[in-house]
């Protein structure tokens, strides 16, 4: 193999391989950093309860109902796209997209709780989720995932206590 052929081979196969490995490490770093921020925010919002149930125990009184929502759009990194395209060929679980959806849902809940806090609420009931795949240019490849969380937020007080 002469120098020109070796250089052409390195450009055609080596450069894409290096870019894929680079995308994997950068994407993993960003994902880990985002999960750390989510955990911190979830801890800060632990005082606002969120349930999928429609009712709470009879000894609680609900005040000031308001619709609250939160939404998060998370983009797919190139490595996830590459790994997903390989998984499409052989079939099976899409683990690369599962963490993407988890991040989007958890971020949406945090933003919904932020909305509840701004309204002076203590609890969110009847929490629902919606997830949407966003595509570019009408192609079949997923570019982003949007998760939305919404519910009815209330102030809480014990029956017999003064309601403000």
Entry summary:
The protein is α+β, with helices and mostly antiparallel strands.
Q: How would you describe this structure to a colleague?
A:
A four-stranded mixed β-sheet has the order 1-3-4-2. Helix 1 runs parallel beside helix 3. It is built from three helices and four strands; from the N terminus they run αββααββ. With 164 residues, the chain is an alpha+beta fold. It has one domain: Translation Initiation Factor IF3 (2-Layer Sandwich), CATH 3.30.110.70.
CATH topology value: Translation Initiation Factor IF3
Provide the number of structural domains. 1
**Main beta sheet strand tally, sense and closure:** 4 strands, mixed
Beta-sheet strand percentage? 25-35%
Give the second-level CATH assignment, the architecture.
2-Layer Sandwich
Structural features:
single chain; 164 residues; alpha+beta; Translation Initiation Factor IF3; 3 helices; elongated
How are the SSEs placed, and which strands pair?
Layout: H1 3-44, E1 49-50, E2 60-75, H2 78-90, H3 95-118, E3 123-135, E4 142-158
Parallel strand pairs: 1-3
Antiparallel strand pairs: 2-4, 3-4
Helix pairs in contact: 1-2, 1-3
């Amino acid at each position: 193999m002469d120098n020109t052929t070796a250089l052409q081979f390195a450009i055609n196969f080596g450069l894409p391989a290096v870019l894929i490995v680079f995308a994997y490490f950068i994407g993993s770093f960003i994902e880990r950093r985002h999960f750390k921020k989510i955990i911190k925010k979830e801890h800060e919002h632990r005082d606002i309860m969120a349930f999928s149930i429609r009712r709470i125990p009879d000894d609680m009184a609900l005040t000031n109902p308001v619709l609250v929502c939160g939404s998060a759009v998370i983009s797919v990194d190139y490595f996830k796209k590459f790994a997903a395209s390989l998984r499409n060929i052989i079939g099976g679980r899409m683990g690369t997209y599962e963490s993407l959806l988890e991040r989007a849902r958890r971020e949406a809940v945090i933003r919904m709780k932020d909305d509840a806090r701004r309204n002076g609420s203590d609890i969110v009931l009847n929490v629902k989720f919606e997830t949407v795949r966003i595509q570019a240019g009408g192609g079949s490849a997923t570019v982003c995932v949007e998760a939305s969380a919404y519910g009815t937020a209330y102030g809480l007080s014990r029956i017999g206590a003064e309601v403000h």
